[in-house]
Known about the structure:
Elements: H1 4-32, H2 38-62, H3 67-88, H4 103-110, H5 119-140, H6 142-148, H7 154-186, H8 190-209, H9 214-239, H10 246-258, H11 260-272, H12 281-300
Helix pairs in contact: 1-2, 1-10, 2-3, 2-7, 2-9, 5-8, 5-9, 5-10, 5-11, 5-12, 6-7, 7-9, 8-9, 8-12, 9-10, 11-12
Amino acid sequence: MQTVVGVVIAWSVVQLVFNAAIAALHAITSDMFPESERGKASVAVGVGGGVGTVLGIGLSAALVKTPILMFGVPALLGFIILLIFLVWYQDTPLQEAPVRAGVLKTVLDSYSFNWRQTPDFGKLLTGNFFILIGLNIITTYQVYVMSDRLGWSDAKVASMITVIYLISGASSMVANYIAGWLSDKYARYRGWIVGSALLLAGTATMFGFRPDLLILAAVLAGLAQGAENNVAYAALSLTMPDQENGGKWLGIGNMSMVLPQSIAPAVAPILLAIGNQSVNYVSLYLGAAIIAVIGAGVIMTIKKLQ
């Protein structure tokens, strides 16, 4: 895959498979654990994801000279681990699944809900959506900041990206564990999400003006991401319209966590074009901060979350 079209196709397939697996894993946490323990259950998923990210980056960096191994070995390892889980986990299927006519209608119905009857769930989806757009702008454009604003060579940028992801992954796992444990213990979720969003906004503002503080920005963004993602999934399970269809609602919730990866690159060029500069990274990161704050404002209005 050495063409733009090939990369787009490959990445689309990866995202499709990855997010299908993630949605199912979070649905399983809803089925297996009571509401009071879902924060801690999300810790396991979050820490697993963090360890996987760090391990995948390390393997890719070690095998970078052989592209087929660089991409193939982490993918194969992930497949083997997932296969072990599928063999180990004993799912309990419905005895009588409802039969519905029309495949397309069934699919569309599974992604729809009444926003007026479940306003808190809708607000949580919306708030997460905005917060994660801000996060994805921060992380996606770090490589361009290193090249354009710091003037680093391609080789230095490539090596630093590995370091940045390792640092942010480690800090994300720490925040994931702490936020998951404390949010369950004190039954407080809204403050963690809002605090994470504000931390993201502060990090984006700092990095926009001081790109040389790259390492500090990676640590802070990792902390915010780890806490927000963990608590947000637990909050989704608490605000969803009903507990009987947890897989459906968490699947919808997962879309609000995934779509920002695609939306952020579409929003970024508008922010980059603000002002007289050809590429305005200050406006880009200030825009990311504002978007994250908007998300925090929406989360603040959720009545069902403490």
